[in-house]
């Protein structure tokens, strides 16, 4: 077996393949050996197709920049023809006969896809503890959450099973688990990567897909492979001036960076996270950047409500669609939280949703104004380090309340009484810094720069201007070189 497998990033492994130093089969052998050793204790991978992966090598992998590199897909959104898509749910199993456009582009890059990773049901909660497949454990501390919804993918990278894994981000679901697992995760600009053919946009433009990686250059090189306009897509974002990979190789330029400490959901930021934020700001200043305190002018009390209304309406539409396509028995197996969000979504009027979406426009404007004066904004990725399992999912009592009420159209009443805020608060509070990127569509990244005293990673989030992933990649590469990553 190729024993040095874990010492390389994805581009490094692909270079070994090109030079003939190692074969794609040897890389797959190594990835499966690590998965066999480590996955039983972390539960990152929930479906494997080893024989198919070996056949893909025999048939010839495309001659892309990642030729032969083992790769895994998050079991949500990404359709891989012939393999089940369960989306973290006990109620649904779809076996598509086609590849998603993003998967098609991944294949063209040369990666060898061999497995699917764990995710919460439909990606609706920010911790990977689904009832269908059980919790994914943080590789840094057993019994602790990986975050979500790309928690399985983050854990697979952090555990060394693969150097790079697919993820998706609708409220922080790439950046959040990247922070808690200590890997690099970038959410691209709205419209940068394709979501078709199943979606033109998802969650009203909040969702973006990309990869979680050990190195910055892998993320940049894969975005070069995957980005670009898709037929029928509602957005046609301008291409980069050069390549994203080239941006990681250019000399870093001094930036003007806004330092934001204020969470956009009412929550307490952990003292260790604030200390890490200050340390990051000081390090950036030593590198020659200008860091100034600045906050976007966003109504904190309205912000989470506008996000929640739109997402719940989307969940209601999704559940109704699955009921039509797969029957009531399918929906009956959905988790209480999913049913409850659908009930809330059905209770809102079309006017409520449009009003909430207009609130998203206000956030876009506020961030646009801030980033007129600054190149990027720095804040924590998550207000705390990883929590133990069982803290973030709803309690059994809360689930019983959800089951008792999900058939009754009383969502607006519950919303107005404050009960929804009380029950959703623990989750929304953890998303206090990430949701903004989804509402605004701006690119953002979590950079693994710090560790807590208990040995849990703490990521720092940088948000850039619309379409300007190049500046983020350039800065991340400088941080990786000069400070080093915790992964």
TrEMBL record:
Keywords from the named record: Hydrolase
MF terms in GO: amidase activity
Its EC number(s): 3.5.1.4
Stated name of the protein: Amidase
Residues in Amidase domain copies: 26-472
Species the sequence originates in: Zhongshania antarctica
Protein family per UniProt: Belongs to the amidase family.
SUPFAM superfamilies in UniProt: Amidase signature (AS) enzymes
């Amino acid at each position: 077996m190729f024993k040095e497998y874990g010492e390389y990033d994805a581009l490094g492994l692909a270079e070994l393949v090109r030079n003939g130093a190692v074969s794609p089969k040897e890389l797959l052998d190594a990835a499966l050996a690590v998965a066999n050793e480590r996955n039983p204790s972390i539960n990152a991978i929930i479906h494997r197709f080893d024989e198919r992966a070996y056949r893909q090598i025999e048939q010839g992998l495309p001659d892309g920049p990642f030729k032969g590199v083992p790769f895994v897909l998050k079991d949500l959104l990404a359709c891989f023809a012939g393999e089940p898509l369960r989306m973290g749910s006990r109620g649904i199993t779809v076996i598509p006969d086609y590849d998603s456009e993003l998967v098609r582009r991944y294949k063209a890059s040369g990666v060898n896809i061999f497995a699917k990773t764990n995710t919460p049901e439909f990606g609706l909660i920010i911790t990977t503890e689904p009832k269908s497949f059980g919790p994914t454990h943080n590789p840094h501390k057993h019994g602790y959450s990986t975050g979500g919804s790309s928690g399985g993918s983050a854990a697979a990278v952090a555990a060394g099973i693969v150097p790079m894994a697919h993820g998706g981000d609708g409220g922080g679901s790439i950046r959040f688990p990247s922070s808690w697992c200590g890997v690099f995760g970038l959410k691209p600009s709205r419209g940068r990567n394709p979501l078709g053919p199943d979606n033109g946009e998802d969650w009203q433009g909040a969702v973006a897909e990309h990869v979680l990686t050990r190195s910055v250059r892998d993320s940049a090189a894969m975005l070069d492979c995957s980005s670009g306009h898709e037929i029928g897509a509602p957005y046609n974002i301008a291409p980069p001036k050069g390549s994203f990979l080239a941006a990681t190789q250019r000399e870093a330029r001094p930036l003007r960076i806004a330092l934001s400490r204020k969470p956009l959901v009412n929550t307490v930021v952990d003292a260790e996270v604030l200390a890490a934020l200050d340390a990051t700001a000081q390090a950036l200043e030593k590198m020659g950047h200008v860091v100034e305190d600045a906050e976007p002018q966003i109504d904190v009390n309205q912000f989470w409500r506008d996000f929640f209304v739109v997402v719940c309406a989307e969940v209601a539409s999704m559940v109704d669609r699955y009921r039509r396509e797969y029957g009531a028995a399918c929906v009956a197996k959905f988790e209480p939280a999913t049913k409850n969000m659908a009930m809330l979504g059905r209770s809102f009027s079309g006017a409520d949703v449009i009003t909430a979406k207009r609130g998203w426009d206000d956030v876009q404007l506020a961030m646009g104004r801030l980033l007129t004066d600054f190149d990027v904004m720095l804040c924590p990725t998550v207000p705390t380090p990883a929590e133990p399992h069982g803290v973030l999912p709803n309690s059994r009592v809360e689930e019983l309340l959800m089951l008792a009420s999900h058939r009754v159209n009383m969502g607006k009443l519950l919303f107005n009484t404050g009960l929804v805020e009380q029950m959703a608060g623990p989750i929304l509070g953890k998303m206090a810094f990430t949701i903004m990127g989804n509402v605004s569509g701006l690119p953002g990244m979590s950079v693994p720069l710090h560790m807590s005293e208990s040995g849990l990673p703490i990521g720092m989030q940088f948000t850039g201007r619309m379409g300007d992933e190049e500046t983020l990649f350039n800065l991340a590469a400088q941080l990786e070189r000069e400070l080093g990553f915790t992964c």
